[in-house]
Amino acid sequence: MARIAFIGVGNMGGPMLGNLVKAGHEVSAFDLAAPAREAARTAGATLADGAAQAAKGAEIVITMLPAGQHVRAVLIEGGVLDAAAKGTLFIDCSTIDVDTARAVHKAALERGHELLDAPVSGGTAGAAAGTLTFMVGGNKAAFDRAEPILKAMGKAVIHAGPSGNGQAAKICNNMILGITMIGVSEALTLAKRLGLDAATLHAISSKSSGSCWALNEYCPAPGPVPKAPSNRDYQAGFTAQMMLKDLKLALNAAQSTDSAMPLGAAAESLYALYCGAGHSAKDFSGIIQMIEGKG
Ligand code: NAD
């Protein structure tokens, strides 16, 4: 069993930490927010006074922070890379930009550590159930070392290639999701106006060429998929704010690589409009209401 430091134990990190404790690991936690720290203590972690203190004596340091600037602030400016013993394995599970992922990887290597970017798919429900998908960038030896730890928190752990490729996979995956959710919302809205109800279109398209996760598993119209947020007034789930963040990351990456992203850019604009109208905290599938002209 490993000695693990966990920094950033919010909505995702908290339940992920819980699964590491259940698997028998010794976990030291730190978060800036007192309620997150208390929840980590209740889940069985010991609390550290700061991020650098948590990292001291740890074999593995996991970060689950909001964005790239927080990861940089903790690992580099906050002195966590400097405080850790040489040879520590860092696993950053936050969703951040590829450039920052590669910069912190380089900073870790310079100090004699290993660092993997390992963003996740599966949301807070997947974090609680231990069924996340990890997409991991970094060298294979570090991946092999991380795999058994990540398996305590997820059902799929996939090596995506060198440093930054985990983040590349995450933003590309979520761009597909953002675009398809809008496409499905448009189709359901058009169908309704043509007199075709959501349940019937769902039954047909989920078995036809329109089949996709946004429709089959997460239908934005209430009814066809009982577990979807559309049946509980679009209570998140995965917030519209998070989807907007991921689409912005994809858009920035497209600009820096001269990639055409017309539908991704349109999806980013539509989510910016939806969030700007006061719906940031709603589930991202709630965008169907804006497409229907309701908000
Ligand atoms: P969150 O805001 O609930 O948790 C982040 C935590 O980091 C907070 O508790 C915050 O206090 C802490 N934090 C911020 N700066 C810190 C610092 N300097 N030192 C210590 N702690 C600090 O966010 P979340 O929903 O847990 O998301 C975390 C990451 O996971 C994000 O990058 C997000 O994009 C990604 N993600 C989230 C979901 C989801 O459904 N929530 C799904 C997939 C990926």
What does it look like?
This protein has 295 residues and is an alpha/beta fold. It has 2 domains: 3-162, NAD(P)-binding Rossmann-like Domain (Rossmann fold, 3-Layer(aba) Sandwich); 168-291, N-(1-d-carboxylethyl)-l-norvaline Dehydrogenase, domain 2 (Orthogonal Bundle), CATH 1.10.1040.10. It has helices at 13-22, 34-42, 51-55, 68-77, 80-83, 98-110, 123-129, 140-151, 165-193, 198-205, 213-216, 240-256, 262-279, 287-291, and strands at residues 3-7, 26-30, 46-47, 60-63, 89-92, 114-117, 120-121, 132-137, 154-161. Strands 3-2-1-4-5-6 form a 6-stranded parallel β-sheet, sandwiched between helices. It has a 3-stranded mixed β-sheet with strand order 7-8-9. Helix 8 (140-151) links the parallel strand 8 and strand 9 (154-161). Helix 9 crosses helix 12 (240-256) and helix 9 (165-193) packs across helix 13. Bound molecules: nicotinamide-adenine-dinucleotide (NAD). Nicotinamide-adenine-dinucleotide binds at residues 7-8, 10-13, 30-33, 36, 51, 64-66, 70, 73-74, 94-95, 120, 123-124, 238, 242, 245.
First and last CA, distance = 51 Å
Percent helix: 40-55%
Gyration radius, in Å: 20 Å
Largest sheet: 6 strands, parallel
Structural class: alpha/beta
What bound compounds does this protein have? nicotinamide-adenine-dinucleotide
Order of helices and strands: EHEHEHEHHEHEEHEHEHHHHHH
Average pLDDT, all residues: 97
Write the SSE topology.
Blueprint: E1 3-7, H1 13-22, E2 26-30, H2 34-42, E3 46-47, H3 51-55, E4 60-63, H4 68-77, H5 80-83, E5 89-92, H6 98-110, E6 114-117, E7 120-121, H7 123-129, E8 132-137, H8 140-151, E9 154-161, H9 165-193, H10 198-205, H11 213-216, H12 240-256, H13 262-279, H14 287-291
Parallel strand pairs: 1-2, 1-4, 2-3, 4-5, 5-6, 8-9
Antiparallel strand pairs: 7-8
Bound molecules: nicotinamide-adenine-dinucleotide.
